[in-house]
C-alpha cells in the first residue's frame, strides 16, 4: 500500500469517522433487449403499460426502441439497489406478454438495418431531440451497435468523507470543497483507468456473438458454429474494437487529469466539425438525420469506460452541471450483463465493485501522460480480447508482467479496504467477494467468459440458442415471482404519471424544432469551472 492509502484507511477506521463509509450511494442502469418467444428482436413499440420512455424515472429505452433501460433509485447499500432492480424486472415482466428480456450483452439475432426501430419519445421538442440524436448514432455507427447492452454502476462517496480528507490533506493547496471533491473523483477515475482491465478479466461475459451482428464487416474472430463467432480467450468482445469504438473520437486528447481538461475535451468534441459527418449533413430531404456534423452530437456520445457525473437540473446539460457544481458521482460503464444472473449482476459483484472503487478513490493517483494513457488502453484491449490466454502479460511500470500475478497483487492492495467496509457494516461480504475473484485468477475456467464458452460448446455452439435458453430461465423466474401489490401500485402510478407528463409536454406551446436544436447546441458554454 502507498503511504497515502495507509493514512486514509487509518483516518477512516477511527470510530468517529467510520460512519461516513455508509453514506455513499449506489445506483444501477441495466440495459436489455425485448425479444420474442423465438429470441428475435421484438418489433413492437415500447409497452404503454410501462409508461413513457421520455419521462419515466425508472423504466425507459436506450438507443433502439426494443432496448429497455432500467434505472434504480440511488441507495446506500448495493443489496437494496439490487432489490429495487429486481422489482423493476418483475413489474416489467407482468406487462411484457409473450416477450422476454434478452440475457446477454451482445444482441440476439437482428433483422436488417432498416427493420431495427430507433427509440421514439413522442412529438415534443425534447422527445424529438432524443430521437434525432439516435438517428445520428445510426448514421454514424449503424443500428446493430445500438442494440448492445451493459450494466452501468453509479457510485458516490459521502460528501462528509471528502470533507474529512480535505481537512486532513488540503491545508497547503487551499482548494475549495467543490474543487477538492472534483479532483478526488478524477483521481478515482485515473486509478480506474489503470486497473479496470481487472474488471474485464473477472466479470467480462461476452466472448462470443451472433455472426449477424457484424453485418459482413471484416473481423478476426473465429467460427464456433454456423451462427456464432468468438475468440477463444476473450473476456468481453462488447468492450473490444467490435463494440463501442469510433475513429472520430480516437483523436481526442486525454481528459482524466482534471475537471478543466475533461470539460475542454467535451467542449471541443461537441463543437469540432468532422468531415465524414459534414458530408452527410444534418438533414436529408428536409428530415433531420443527426443533431450536428461535429465529432459528437452531445456529451453522451463520448464513449468512455467511466464518466464523472452530476445530477442535472431541468433544462441543464451535463457539461453545465459539472462546470457549475462539480463532480457528484462516477458512472462505471464497462460491466457486461451477467447472463447467469436474472437482473444481470450479482450482489457479490456489487460488493467487489464497492471495494475496488473505494480503493481507487483512496489510493495514490498521479496524473496520466499521453504515453501512459496508451499503455492503459492497451492493457484493457489485451484483456478483453485474450484475457484468459495462458502466459498473457500486461504492461506495468515499463515491464511486462503476468496478468494473474498483477491481479493477485491488486487484490492484496484492495484487501484492507474490503476489511474496512466489512468492519463498518458487519460480516465478511466484501472480503468474501475478494476471495471469489482470487479463485478466478488462479483458474481462468472460473471466469464468466469461460463459463459462457463451456455452455456454448456443450449445446452446439450457438450463441442465439444459449441466449434464448438463459432468457427463458430468467423469464420463468420473474413470472413465478410477480410484483407485490405495493410494487404493482407504485409502478402503475409511475407509468400513469409519466404518460401524463409526456402528454403535457406535447400540448405545451413551443417554437420550431430547428430553433430548439439551435438553442440546445448553443447552450454548451461553460463559464464557471472553479
UniProtKB/TrEMBL annotation:
Q: Name one GO cellular component term.
A: cytosol
Q: List, alphabetically, the Gene3D superfamilies matched.
A: 3.30.590.20
Going by the entry's taxonomy, the superkingdom of the source organism is recorded as Bacteria
- Per UniProt, residues of the Glutamate--cysteine ligase domain are 10-381
Which reaction(s) does the protein catalyse, per the Swiss-Prot or TrEMBL entry?
A: L-cysteine + L-glutamate + ATP = gamma-L-glutamyl-L-cysteine + ADP + phosphate + H(+)
Give the keywords, sorted.
Answer: ATP-binding, Glutathione biosynthesis, Ligase, Nucleotide-binding
Which family, according to UniProt? Belongs to the glutamate--cysteine ligase type 1 family. Type 1 subfamily.
Descriptive protein name: Glutamate--cysteine ligase
- Species: Pseudoduganella namucuonensis
Amino acid at each position: 500500500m502507498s503511504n497515502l492509502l495507509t493514512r486514509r484507511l487509518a483516518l477512516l477506521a477511527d470510530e468517529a469517522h467510520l460512519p461516513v463509509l455508509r453514506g455513499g450511494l449506489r445506483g444501477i442502469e441495466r440495459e436489455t433487449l425485448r425479444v420474442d418467444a423465438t429470441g428475435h428482436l421484438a418489433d413492437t413499440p415500447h409497452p404503454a403499460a410501462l409508461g413513457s420512455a421520455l419521462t419515466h424515472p425508472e423504466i425507459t429505452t436506450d438507443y433502439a426502441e426494443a432496448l429497455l433501460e432500467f434505472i434504480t433509485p440511488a441507495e446506500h447499500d448495493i443489496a437494496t439497489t439490487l432489490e429495487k432492480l429486481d422489482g423493476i424486472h418483475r413489474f416489467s415482466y407482468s406487462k411484457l406478454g409473450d416477450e422476454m428480456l434478452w440475457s446477454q450483452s451482445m444482441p440476439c439475432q437482428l433483422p436488417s438495418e432498416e427493420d431495427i426501430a430507433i427509440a421514439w419519445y413522442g412529438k415534443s421538442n425534447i422527445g424529438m431531440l432524443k430521437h434525432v440524436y439516435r438517428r445520428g448514432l445510426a448514421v454514424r455507427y449503424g443500428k446493430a451497435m445500438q442494440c448492445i447492452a451493459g450494466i452501468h454502476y453509479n457510485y458516490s462517496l459521502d460528501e462528509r468523507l471528502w470533507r474529512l480528507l480535505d481537512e486532513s490533506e488540503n491545508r497547503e493547496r487551499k482548494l475549495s470543497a467543490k474543487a477538492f471533491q472534483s479532483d478526488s473523483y478524477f483521481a478515482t477515475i485515473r486509478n480506474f483507468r489503470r486497473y479496470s482491465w481487472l474488471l474485464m478479466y473477472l466479470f467480462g461475459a461476452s466472448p462470443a456473438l451472433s455472426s449477424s451482428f457484424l453485418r459482413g464487416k471484416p473481423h478476426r474472430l473465429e467460427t464456433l458454429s454456423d451462427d456464432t463467432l468468438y475468440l477463444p480467450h476473450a473476456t468481453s468482445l462488447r468492450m473490444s474494437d467490435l463494440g463501442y469504438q469510433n475513429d472520430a473520437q480516437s483523436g481526442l486528447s486525454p481528459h482524466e487529469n482534471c475537471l478543466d481538461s475533461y470539460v475542454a475535451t467535451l467542449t471541443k468534441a461537441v463543437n469540432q466539425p468532422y468531415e465524414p459527418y459534414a458530408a452527410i449533413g444534418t438533414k436529408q430531404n428536409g428530415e433531420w438525420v443527426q443533431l450536428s456534423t461535429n465529432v459528437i452530437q452531445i456529451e453522451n456520445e463520448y464513449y468512455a469506460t467511466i464518466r464523472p457525473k452530476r445530477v442535472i437540473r431541468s433544462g441543464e446539460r451535463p457539461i453545465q452541471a459539472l462546470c457549475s457544481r462539480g463532480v457528484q458521482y462516477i458512472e462505471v460503464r464497462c460491466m457486461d450483463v451477467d447472463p447467469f444472473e436474472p437482473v444481470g449482476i450479482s450482489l457479490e459483484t456489487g460488493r467487489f465493485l464497492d471495494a475496488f472503487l473505494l480503493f481507487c478513490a483512496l489510493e495514490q493517483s498521479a496524473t496520466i501522460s499521453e504515453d501512459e494513457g496508451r499503455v492503459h488502453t492497451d492493457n484493457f484491449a489485451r484483456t478483453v480480447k485474450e484475457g484468459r490466454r495462458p502466459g498473457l502479460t500486461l504492461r506495468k511500470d515499463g515491464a511486462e508482467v503476468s496478468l494473474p500475478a498483477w491481479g493477485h497483487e491488486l487484490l492484496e492492495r484492495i484487501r484492507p479496504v474490503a476489511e474496512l467496509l466489512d468492519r463498518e457494516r458487519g460480516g465478511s461480504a466484501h472480503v468474501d467477494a475478494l476471495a471469489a475473484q482470487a479463485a478466478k485468477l488462479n483458474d481462468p475456467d472460473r471466469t464468466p467468459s469461460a463459463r459462457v464458452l463451456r455452455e456454448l460448446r456443450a449445446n452446439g455452439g450457438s450463441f442465439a440458442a444459449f441466449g434464448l435458453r438463459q432468457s427463458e430461465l430468467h423469464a420463468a423466474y420473474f413470472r413465478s415471482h410477480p410484483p407485490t401489490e405495493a410494487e404493482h401500485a407504485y409502478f402503475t402510478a409511475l407509468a400513469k404519471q409519466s404518460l401524463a407528463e409526456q402528454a403535457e409536454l406535447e400540448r405545451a406551446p413551443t417554437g420550431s424544432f430547428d430553433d430548439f436544436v439551435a438553442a440546445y447546441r448553443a447552450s454548451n458554454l461553460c463559464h464557471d469551472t472553479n
